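Technical annex, item 7. During the second reporting period the consortium partners agreed on a shared format for inverse folding records so that results from different sites could be compared directly. Each record opens with the tokenized structure and is followed by the designed sequence. A conforming record, contributed by the partner at site C, is shown below for reference.
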């Protein structure tokens, strides 16, 4: 039995299912040790989470790195709004913990990688139906069986159903739902954060966590995917100190080219082809059937 060298570990983490399980394990350990080490431990977990996120995107296309950066920015703004301004939930020590912004990037990557796994790609319709059923069941249970009627969760569940039924790529949102459900149930059970019993602004009950909480994550992701291409262009100009090829594909590179046939970047599905490309824009691949082409990036599915 061979040893697990860094190269071999990296190869294993490139497998979608292994990556998702590894992120769940990391979250499990981080939330388990966080209560015991005070504010300093919280900051240390944040630093480690940033390192994990940077390592996770090293093999990504520049377009996906820009999407992850956009997710971190948009979700961080959402955290300030939801926690500090609206007061919908609160973290153990108040404020926004250092591990939360990079954590959103890992949640996004985990949902994307899970959507890329062989079992999901082979059963897309079933996965989406299960997600719809789970959303409806959780919302009804939150209203009828919870310690307090989860009105906010029911409203959020309607938005989540819209993502699953009308979204451009419902499989990604379905996978995001499953990952976020584990994250929220575990995080609230560990006391890492808790939701307010009543949202005073609308005078409605709030579950801990709300049943449709994944809608917020899906909204962050959808908005960030729209902003990703613009952010990528800006970073190419404003961050010349970045490693070569980090935000833009190096000239002459074919293995990770954003116009490679194995998966185009998000921006190539727009009205124009990427600058400098003579290839016409081709029809957008879909995950709604079973014949999904392979892609190492969520960029082509956004």
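Designed sequence (site C submission):
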């Amino acid at each position: 039995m061979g040893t697990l060298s860094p190269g071999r570990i990296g190869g294993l983490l490139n497998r979608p299912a292994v990556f998702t399980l590894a992120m769940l394990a990391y979250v499990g350990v981080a939330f388990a040790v966080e209560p015991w080490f005070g504010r300093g431990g919280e900051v240390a977990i944040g630093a480690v989470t940033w390192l994990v996120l940077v390592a996770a995107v090293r093999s990504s296309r520049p377009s996906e790195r820009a999407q992850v950066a956009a997710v971190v920015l948009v979700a961080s703004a959402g955290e300030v709004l939801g926690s500090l301004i609206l007061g919908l939930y609160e973290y153990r020590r108040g404020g926004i913990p250092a591990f939360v912004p990079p954590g959103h990037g890992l949640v996004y990557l985990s949902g994307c990688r899970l959507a890329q796994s062989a079992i999901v790609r082979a059963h897309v319709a079933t996965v989406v139906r299960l997600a719809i059923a789970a959303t409806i069941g959780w919302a009804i249970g939150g209203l009828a069986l919870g310690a307090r009627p989860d009105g906010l969760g029911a409203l959020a569940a309607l938005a989540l159903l819209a993502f699953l039924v009308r979204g451009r790529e419902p499989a990604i949102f379905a996978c995001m739902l499953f990952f976020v459900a584990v994250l929220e149930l575990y995080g609230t059970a560990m006391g890492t954060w808790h939701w307010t019993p009543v949202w005073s602004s609308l005078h409605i009950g709030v579950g801990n966590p709300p049943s449709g909480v994944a809608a917020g994550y899906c909204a962050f992701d959808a908005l960030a995917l729209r902003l990703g291409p613009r952010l990528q262009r800006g970073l190419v100009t404003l961050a010349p100190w970045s490693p070569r090829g980090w935000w833009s594909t190096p000239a002459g590179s074919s293995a990770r080219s954003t116009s490679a046939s194995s998966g185009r970047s998000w921006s190539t599905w727009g009205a124009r082809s990427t600058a400098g490309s003579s290839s016409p824009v081709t029809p957008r691949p879909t995950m709604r059937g079973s014949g999904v082409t392979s892609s190492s990036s969520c960029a082509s599915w956004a």
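Residues 13-230 form one domain. The CA atoms of residues 146 and 207 lie 7 Å apart. All partners now use this format for quarterly exchanges.
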